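Re: Re: ligand-bound prediction request (bumping)

Still looking for help on this. To restate: I need the protein modeled with zinc ion bound, output as structure tokens. Inputs repeated here so nobody has to scroll up.
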Amino acid sequence: MTPAVRKQVSEGIQRQLRAAEAKAKDDFTLILIRTRVRSAEKRVADETFGKCTIDNKTINLGVLQKDPSQPYCEECERRIAKIHKWLLKKLSESRKELDGITATTRSILKNDSAKTIGKEGDIVLPDVDVPNIRSGRLKQEIRQMEESLISMAKGEYDGACESCEEPIPEGRLKIFPGTKKCTTCAGGTKKERD
Ligand SMILES: [Zn+2]
Ligand SMILES: [Zn+2]
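Reply:
Sorry for the wait, this slipped through. Here it is.
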């Protein structure tokens, strides 16, 4: 890449960033956009720009003209785009469920009639352990999904198990899009394995 081309590519990436930032609806989306653009600029600087970050195949020029921060070749992008869609859907569902639990727990704790007076005359709060366990689990899932989206933005996500490096089956990713392990490495039973 000549310095002139590099400059041109960099400007294209910056233009994309500004256009995407203007459309972003929340802070997390902004983080994703900036991460993606920063990673693309890093690839320009270290001369790996235009090569798929997964298999090193050349990314179609037409793709890069439309989307200069695209880290994946068309073949990899098809697979990643599917997981990306599952991640966004599940992430929004999980965030909604967590908000619901948080609101319910808060109203239970606020509701005086739900409180009882204990033997010592102290106030006994209603049991919120079950929703707490569920919200803890949801928070963990949300964090994992956000991490996956960030690593996609960096071009580092390849859908492989972090333990055995085998591709995680799509059936599993569809249900648990944030998972980083295949069923075997996650310790699932034989019956659960794909
Ligand atoms: Zn590829
Ligand atoms: Zn594995």
